[in-house]
Amino acid sequence: MKSKLLCRELREEVLETALRLPEFGLVWMAGGTACARDPETGYIITTPSGLKYDLLTPEDMIVVDMDMNVIEGSCRPSVATNLWIEIYKRRGDVNAIIHTHSPYATAFSVINEPIPIITETQANWLRKPVQVAQYAHVEDDHFVTAPADALGDGYAVLLGQHGPIIVGANLEETLERSITLEEAAKTYSISKTLGNPIHFDEKQALRSYEYYTNRYGQK
Ligand SMILES: [Zn+2]
After folding, report:
1. What distance in angstroms lies between residue 58's CA and the mean position of ligand 1's atoms?
2. Chain centroid, CA 19 distance in Å
3. Domains in the chain and their CATH numbers?
4. Distance, CA 106 to ligand 1 centroid (Å)?
5. How far is the CA of 66 from the centre of ligand 1 (A)?
6. Residue 104, SS3?
7. How far apart are CA 28 and CA 91, in angstroms?
8. Ligand 1 geometric centre to CA of 214 (Å)
């Protein structure tokens, strides 16, 4: 019999998502984070800090409230939990956050250059260029505000000299968006070596995003 745990299903979903991050080459060992907000309780379920994903069980996930109190869990939560909370506070449309170290997207955080919209698929998933937040150490005052400000109403932001944060309505969507971001960063890097990549302008990107979101497929 399964033990009683708060937000059992969401814990399992957070763990499943975390396990898929190395599978897609987005993180290694214990890097990165997957976390989600339970819309009913408002609790946040996050992966623990510094533990290898393949050894984790749903019991190892941490449940915290919006004031960073640990509600359930014996491990320490992800070190950036204060940042995840800030994003959830600012964005009512966001119930999932993924942080990766995917190499092509991270490279743009190192050269401090935003990733423009260059393909239709990227426009469909990301809607607008991905900005780079000023570098911050986890103990710096602007560690929380710089990325949350640079994210704005977007779906992804690059932590300066670190890696991307991707947000979405649920974990499945956010994982797909994380993969799309890395693919786009890779394509952009290759196209820069071949010539001058053509960027989508704001209007083109929005048109693509709205069509894909509202009318594409079985909708
Ligand atoms: Zn990281």
Report:
1. 21
2. 14
3. 8-214 (3.40.225.10)
4. 10
5. 21
6. helix
7. 28
8. 33
Put residue 163 in one of left, alpha, beta given phi > 0 → left and psi -120 to 50 → alpha: left
Strand 131-133, strand 156-159: pairing: parallel
User: Exposed e or buried b for every residue in 133-148, given b needs 16+ CB within 10 A?
Assistant: bbbbeeeeeebbebbb
Which amino acid belongs to residue 59? E
pTM of the predicted model, to two decimals? Answer: 0.94
Q: In a structure prediction context, what are the per-residue pLDDT tens digits for the chain, which is 219 residues long?
A: 455 788 889 999 999 999 999 999 999 877 889 999 999 999 999 998 888 888 889 999 999 999 999 999 888 887 899 999 999 999 999 999 999 999 999 999 999 999 999 999 999 999 999 999 999 999 999 999 999 999 999 999 999 999 999 999 999 999 999 999 999 999 999 999 999 999 999 999 999 999 999 977 766
Tell how far the Cα of 162 is from the centroid of ligand 1, in angstroms: 6
Reduced to 3 states (helix: H, G, I; strand: E, B; else coil), residue 5 is coil
Q: How far is the CA of 198 from the centre of ligand 1 (A)?
A: 30
